Amino acid sequence: MSERPERRGPERRKSVPDRRGGELLDRREWLNQVTGNWDHDILPGNVHIGSDCYLESTGSFALWKSGTDPGIVIGDRVTIYGWTKFESVGSGFIEVGDDSILVGARLMSSERISIGRRVVVSHHVLFADSDMHPVEPQLRRKETVALAYYDDSERRQPVDVRPITVGDDVWIGAASIVLKGVTIGEGARVQAGSVVVDDIPAGAVVAGSPARPIEEGERP
């Protein structure tokens, strides 16, 4: 009869590599990934987590490379499901207020993305506070050559960067896009599939591409 395997308590769990390293986890660790029962100490030091949070998966932080400290600040009682991804482009900063729920957001920050309290963000919602690359074709080509052929990040071309602010009690529907420089006022509702390029007043309901105010129940 073979020996029983060593029991894996909290001390063992800390030494198991997480998904971000591209290494396989044992079955128990995979179960922990989908139940949120993993050690938050393995996160980067510039990620600050409040109390009573549910973070489903380490994979949400796989692309977070910002050197800003703090880089991510998550408030108390925040729920973040595994479809959500935090991604830094340069020295980004992201904050999420108390009691918010991120079901499947992708937050790409070069400067600052601020999400208020009690905000609900649905599946496949993109936040991007910059263009990430030049829009003008010739500048785009110069940057591509510098990075692809010479690996010279100092020759990157300047891009437009402006912070995103989402007020308290906002709901954002599935597959919406929120672009640079946008402020969404408190209590606003963004219908599914909207592309938000301009500020949204507090309490407004918006839909469409680009998003525009509509009456409650109106089809965009």
Describe this structure as you would to a colleague:
The chain is an alpha/beta fold. It folds into two domains: 9-42, no CATH class; 44-212, Hexapeptide repeat proteins (UDP N-Acetylglucosamine Acyltransferase, domain 1), CATH 2.160.10.10. 13% of the residues lie in helices and 26% in strands. Strands 2, 4, 5, 7, 9, 11, 12, 14, 15, 16 and 17 form an eleven-stranded mixed β-sheet that branches. A hairpin with a 4-residue loop joins strand 16 and strand 17. The longest helix is centred in the middle third of the chain and has 14 residues, at 137-150. The protein is globular. 27% of the residues are buried. The model is unreliable at 1-25 (pLDDT under 50).
Return the string of H and E elements.
HHEEEEEEEEEHEEEEEEEE
Could you say what the CATH topology of the largest domain is called?
Answer: UDP N-Acetylglucosamine Acyltransferase, domain 1
Structural class: alpha/beta
Structurally, how many domains make up the residues?
A: 2
Give the second-level CATH assignment, the architecture of the largest domain.
Answer: 3 Solenoid
Mean pLDDT: 82
CATH homologous superfamily grouping of the largest domain: Hexapeptide repeat proteins
**Tell me about the biggest sheet?**
11 strands, mixed
**Rg from alpha-carbon coordinates:** 20 Å
Quick one: overall form?
Answer: globular
What assembly state would you assign to the polypeptide chains in this entry? single chain
Number of strand segments: 17
